Amino acid sequence: MRYGEAPRDDSDQDEDEQQLTLNKTPTTQRRIRKETSQQKSKELGPWATACTLFKGFVCTGILYLPLNFSIGGWGFLSIAISIAACVTLLCSKLLLEVNEKLGGSFSEIGMRTFGKTGKTMVDIALIGS
After folding, report:
1. Contact 24, 32 (CB under 8 A)
2. How many CA atoms lie within 13 A of 40 on its CB side?
3. For residue 29, what are the CA distances in angstroms to 17, 19, 34?
């Protein structure tokens, strides 16, 4: 918006789009509509992507915790979650150390350590997760 212009609303944008596609073929109209819709959409940055992944994986697990605690018992589940957290931290630390020494993706690390079978197992585990 420039100085002195009135703010635009969606109806103004629809009219602009109609004027752009007025004397065009149907294929050209679709292409113009697609280009204008792509210009309106934004891509997620790294921080927004990390937050989205966190919500998708961690928050859904947290939603099921109350039911799991009532079924499994408070004492047992508290111990089990603590053990699972420690194992996860240990595995993450080990993966980071191996990545530091060997480099590459998880599949490449599996290939270098256990050969073709290791690569296949890692790929299956990644697909499953």
Report:
1. yes
2. 10
3. 9, 11, 9
Q: Determine the residue type at 6.
A: A
pLDDT in tens, 49-71: 777 777 777 777 777 778 878 88
**Per this entry, what is the length of the chain?**
129
- What's the predicted TM-score (pTM) here? 0.47
Structure tokens at 1: 């918006």
Terminal CA-to-CA distance of the chain, rounded, Å?
46
Dihedral (CA of 113, 116, 120, 123) sign: positive
Selection from 42, 21, 41 nearest residue 33 by Cα: 21
